Amino acid sequence: MKVPCAVIRDLLPLYAEDLAGEESRALVEEHLADCPDCRKQYEDMKQPKPAPEPDGAEALRAVKRVIRRRRLTAVLLAALLVFLPLFALLARGTEKYPLSYEEAEVQVESDKDGWLTLSFGSSVAGVERVNVTDPDSGKRILLVQAWNNRMLKLMGLHQLSGVGNWQANTAYYDCVIYGFGEEQTLLHGEAMNGGVQILPRLVLGYYLLLSLAATAVFGLLWLIFRKKKAAAVLRALFFAALSYPVGHLLIKGTQTISFFLLRDLAFILIAAAAVWGLLMMAWGILFAAEKETRRSRLKGLLIGILLVILLVFAFFVFVPGSYGSTREVRAQLVVDGQPVGDKSITIYRHGNDYFSELPLKTVIEALGGEFTWEENDGARIEAEGKVFILDGDRLRDSAGKTLCRDDRLQFHGEEGEYPHELYLEHETVQSVLRMLGFESAEITIDPRNRTVSVTR
């Protein structure tokens, strides 16, 4: 008699546990010999089964995962808090500063094949070179500038010998000049009536303004959609936009100009990425609980903002030269040792640097020249027996050749204000005086005695 599979499967648990009677056992064994399905089910029953987990095991594993994640986040947060000030110190310490011709100990040699060989002293850590073409004369000019940085000097590693010699082909270059800025030394070629300078890049200031605007926009959107699914994305964008100005403050302080743009921008972006990670992880730690009151959210946010402010403030206070505020004192203008009338000017301090704005017309007249305003915002200047024309933003000689072009030379007053002073930064005034024929003109700022002295 054939027994249905359903009956055998009901007997299989008893048979597997050796609890079935003799007749039932014989019946099951006979069926298993001919039925592969029931035989497979019996073999599955004989396989050892894992012990049942106690109640709450899965919940316990979930709690352990959360604890490990929070512990890792706390470690990364602490690492970023240590990394940021150290990285900012590295950026400030490795910032390049130019060396004067004397400090760089430049030696110049020329050979019969037209090659100019430049060698530098042991205080030079590196050399930058820029090729430019003068727009007026068409001369090809090579500008060379040696540099060092504070960290190498502090560590005693600035005595380098790896800079080596630099060569320039005088058959190609009309002029070789040492120095990017005001103080330049002609190494080869004829002296130019005027000069060429490398101006700093201003784009960091635009990036800073753009990031501040993005911070305000994303912050407002996050506030509006804080209960929507998009809140997490808007929060990340808000922190990203906020991180850039914080990174800029850590790396550049309040300065927004740069002679080495790629280097400064790379440091700022790395610092901003670290700040973004710090803010995101701090937010995750402070607001990890699923249920929290509005008051606790606000308290945590204020604590996070306060920590960032304290970090930036501590850096500015304890790192020399980081604080970029501007201070000012009133001073007396002195030309060739004589006070000039009642001309009281202002000395500004920005970080460790001093600068002042001087009245160009008054300075030229005090040196024995003449400065006469003419129509169309121009002026006629007589100095050292020569005539010059200030035409808008250009300074020309009597033959019409442009000596320099600078927007700061242009008077921006209202109609009917002539004659009027033209206030320019002291370095610009010094450059203009040298172009006018006062080749040894020097401007010295003495904040202690509150004087700004102009000497021929």
Report on the architecture of this protein.
The chain has about 450 residues and is of the alpha+beta class. It has 4 domains: about 5-45, no CATH class; about 65-95 and about 200-320, no CATH class; about 100-190, no CATH class; about 325-455, no CATH class. The protein is about 45% helix and about 25% strand. It is built from 12 helices and 19 strands. The chain has helices spanning about 5-15, 20-35, 35-45, 55-95, 100-105, 150-155, 205-225, 230-250, 260-285, 295-320, 360-365, 425-435; strands spanning about 95-100, 105-110, 115-120, 125-135, 140-150, 165-170, 175-180, 185-190, 325-335, 340-350, 355-360, 370-375, 380-385, 385-390, 395, 400-405, 425, 440-445, 450-455. The protein has a 6-stranded mixed β-sheet. Helix 1 crosses helix 2, helix 2 crosses helix 3 (about 35-45) and helix 7 runs antiparallel to helix 8. The longest helix has about 35 residues, at about 55-95. The protein is elongated, with a radius of gyration of 39 Å. The protein starts with a helix and ends with a strand. Residues about 155-160, about 290-295, about 315-325 and about 415-420 have low confidence and may be disordered.
Which tags fit this structure?
456 residues, six-stranded mixed sheet
